Fold this sequence. Notes:
Largest sheet: 7 strands, mixed
Number of strands: 18
Distance between the termini: 63 Å
Radius of gyration: 23 Å
Oligomer: single chain
Shape: globular
CATH architecture of the largest domain: 3-Layer(aba) Sandwich
Bound molecules: nicotinamide-adenine-dinucleotide
Amino acid sequence: xxxxxNPATEELVATVPAAxxxxxxxxxxxxxxxxxxxxxxxxADRARLLRRFAAVVDGHIEELARLEVTEAGHTIGNARxxxxxxxxxxxxxxxGVERLNGRQIPVAGGLDITILEPLGVVGVIAPWNFPMPIxxxxxxxxxxxxxxVLLKPAETTPLTALRLAELALxxxxxxxxxxxxxxxGPVAGNALVEHxxxxxxxxTGSTRVGKSIMAKCADQVKRVTLELGGxxxxxxxxxxxxxxxxxxxxxxxxxxxxxxxxxxxxxxxxRSAYDRFLELLTPAIEEIVVGDPADERTQMGPLIxxxxxxRVRSYVTDDLAGIRGKAPEGPGFWFPPTVLTDVPEDAxxxxxxxxxxxxxxxxxxxxxxxxxxxxxxxxxxSGSIWTRDVGRALRASRAVxxxxxxxxxxxxxxxxxxFGGYRQSGLGRELGPDALNAFTETKNVFISTEA
Length: 451
Ligand code: NAD
């Protein structure tokens, strides 16, 4: 049994049966059968059903958002956005069904065409940090491309996923096409990874588990997309609008209590602007409202679990200098907004993904030093560049080795633009105009005109 706790109160919200390998076997068989009919259906019919699914989700935004607040401790504003994101992803993917075009390539003596075929059954292993959007990032385009989807949510956050599966049926999606298998990673997750009937795994979570999944997928040359960790830089040049950069910094790593793979947790500030920047940042951190996630005014809620709280605490020892915000006392997995200063570049808190409301500030000398520091990580997911110099913004955007950058902004994820990591932040891309292609095989057919 999985125990779902409210991270703001530590109260038991629900117990959910954990899927066994036998459950996974049965789900794969049912999904494979449903997928054959789904792939054979007229594209317009598949698109219509996905749009209907989006409409049903739209009718349940508030319910889904409240569920997310309760099981994940997300602020209500964020949770509403997340449920709306599921709707938008489904709508966007539905628009791709009739546009999943192959190509016609010039050849002598015939006609050459490519056909984009669905993979079959896709396994999606989702994390707890954004349970709804990350599940939908893979599920919506996979379904649109003609696949069935088996979704394994994280142990701590199965409830929104289970509700989405019910809403899919209500919308008229065929039984078995989209199933949710709550369970533990090593049992249900691993069963999906090892199952020969699962053609692809889309995994989002820790780099450690991602590597082990990639290795296991290699046994069957199973397709795999990985969205892993990050330790993203927020580079502030002295010529930037320092007020704007400092004002935007807190939520660039505190959103979702820092449990965000794109969190800008390494704030790199040009030395000549360092003191002024910290002067501006200090009140901005101290003013962050941390508390009941269901309260509309709250900017930051609790961490997901006791384990995550212990992990964050292990990085922030009392001897470290910095700026500390406020957090509630008492039950709940609370940790205050924290900015660490005067830490060595290679300190664990400066190089490892903490996944909590903690950033480090490091000074740099010049543009070359900024790029060196920005790239001094095994990760490469996101990053921000603050400068008024357009040439510098472009040079830095090219030089930082990461998949998602923003200039004078911290935005990075839109469902219609590609998302994914360099190096140990991942493999493959999700979202964007080519999202459906990641769930297809390309078949090339040559038809002779000579016979
Ligand atoms: P995790 O990688 O263990 O879990 C992510 C998902 O993988 C969950 O659904 C889990 O059940 C599943 N899983 C775990 N072991 C598995 C296995 N052997 N086979 C198949 N599936 C398996 O992450 P976590 O333990 O929940 O968090 C630990 C750290 O990972 C965090 O502190 C953070 O640094 C990182 N993390 C990153 C992201 C991200 O979005 N990049 C998300 C969650 C966690």
